[in-house]
Amino acid sequence: xxxxxxxxxxxxxxxxxxxxxxxxxxxxxxxxxxxxRRVLESAHHLLxxxxxxxxxxxxxxxxxxxxxxxxxRIGIATAxxxxxxxxxxxxxASTLEALALxxxxxxxxxxxxxxxxxxxxxxxxxxAVYAVEGEGHLHEVLAPAAWDPDDLARALDxxxxxxxxxxxxxxxxxxxxxxxxxxxxxDRVRAADLVARVRAGGPxxxxxxxxxxxxAEENRLRREREAAAT
Amino acid sequence: xxDLVLAIETSCDETAAAVVEGRVIRSNVIASQADLHxxxxxxxxxxxxxxxxxxxxxxxxxxxxxxxxxxxEVDRIAVTRRPGLIGALLVGVATAKALxxxxxxxxxxxxxxxxxxxxxxxxxxxxxPPFVALTASGGHTRLDLVEDYAHPVLLGQTLDDAAxxxxxxxxxxxxxxxxxxxxxxxxxxxxxxxxxxxxVGLRSRGPDDLDFSYAGVKTALLYATxxxxxxxxADHRADLAASYQEAIVRPLADRLMRAADSAGVPAVxxxxxxxxxxxxxxxxxxxxxxRGLRVAIPDRALCTxxxxxxxxAAHFTPAIAWPAFVGEDAMATxxxxxxxx
Lengths: 230, 341
Ligand SMILES: [Zn+2]
Prior knowledge:
The structure holds two protein chains of two kinds. Helix content of chain A is 33%, strand content 26%. Chain A is of the alpha/beta class. In chain A, a hairpin with a 6-residue loop joins strand 1 (3-7) and strand 2. In chain A, helix 3 (95-105) crosses helix 5 (191-201). Chain A is globular. Chain B is of the alpha/beta class. Chain B has ten helices and ten strands. The longest helix of chain B has 49 residues, at 215-263. The radius of gyration of chain B is 20 Å and the shape is globular. At the A-B interface, helix 1, helix 2 and helix 6 of A face helix 2 and helix 3 of B. Zinc ion binds next to helix 4 of chain B. Zinc ion (ZN) is lined by residues 112, 116, 137, 139-140, 272, 305 of chain B.
């Protein structure tokens, strides 16, 4: 069983090949990669490096977000295209949950909660809070949502102690009960953690977790509400 | 040589896939999003991109199914790389690259505008060069000289709005819901096109100029409706529609004929969504008859955005061998001069 995993929802896209005995190879595209546009190129190099033919893949696991809309779509389109051509299953996994597994390693005590935080632009962050319950297992304390960073800091205070991970953590103002995981490998999405989440918690549907409506739809609904109010 | 192409097109608001063998269309599947965008009064890029992603794999499956073809039998995969809405293009490009990579097929990165021109190459139109092609839609308005399908040469193009865009905007001013083309045409049929003298863009530029401009006519309609007031507009809607439509489609037909005259070609073609306009067709037929030119107009499904035309363009575009295409990317804009094979 060889699984190809990819996540292009964050500005630090990640991919991995995972076999029955663990990670075979993994890579990150680097921060200048433009929404994961080069993910297939990296996948090709990763497969070549590992000496695995694309036809030998048994399954694809893809991060469905939240994160950058374009990046999410490139990841899912790539995963579904591979799955369609190879006639193999494609599973979804939450980008925030994968990030949470990294943060879990950075915990100082087992009762410390983890808060994966992804920069959502426009002074917002996508975040959730989880309790860690053993290998790959998470219990959702606060559901994934788009937050104002100040509101998130207040919410995290109520769940202290919490350790944050992800590029959005830098946008959250200091709060007494929360701290940030040291920048480094635990602070970025690791594609193999998507596979860990699927194994532990079951797959998610392969559908984007945008957590935000298109602007045009947001504006249309606001106009409708305003019209209804007058 | 077998030449079975699976093509994918997602540059705007149609999710499309087709299987084409040589000049023969084996299947041409189009999932239109027009209804989704109607509530916004125009195509919303983020809404389009989201919808392409949820639809594209099923559309590809259906294209293969209807053609009775398995992906392994396909010789090449083609996809629209540009120009268009970047978020929308990226869905098609990522899908096509992954399909081609996993199925070990060569990939053709095709140009959408090349597709509109190459649609005439397909059966049953099967037009052979040389000819002058008019492409007019909500996104583009241009004339190309086609002496060779691989390298259409740009003769003229719109300097501002596209013809279809001008039609949609005018329709909106007259209270016709988006997309306004069919409604405007129906209303115009009941009116007199000579009632209002709306300005024809770039009229002052002289007979050799083959560019278009539609910003002025739209503004003129806006002023006319303001001057008439709501009641006046209600009384004169049909005449306004007819005069406005005339100001948009007559320059298309005139410049197409002028281009055909100076290029000395025996045929002209019209494509793009505006090619469905009956008044444009009549004017082109009329002008062509006088000159003894053949007029090629592909079926409506081949004029509006579709993937069969991308397969046709792919026939004249070098394929990128497996796996060298893995680093290929979508592009929002075409290079200067337009079509590049
Ligand atoms: Zn088009």
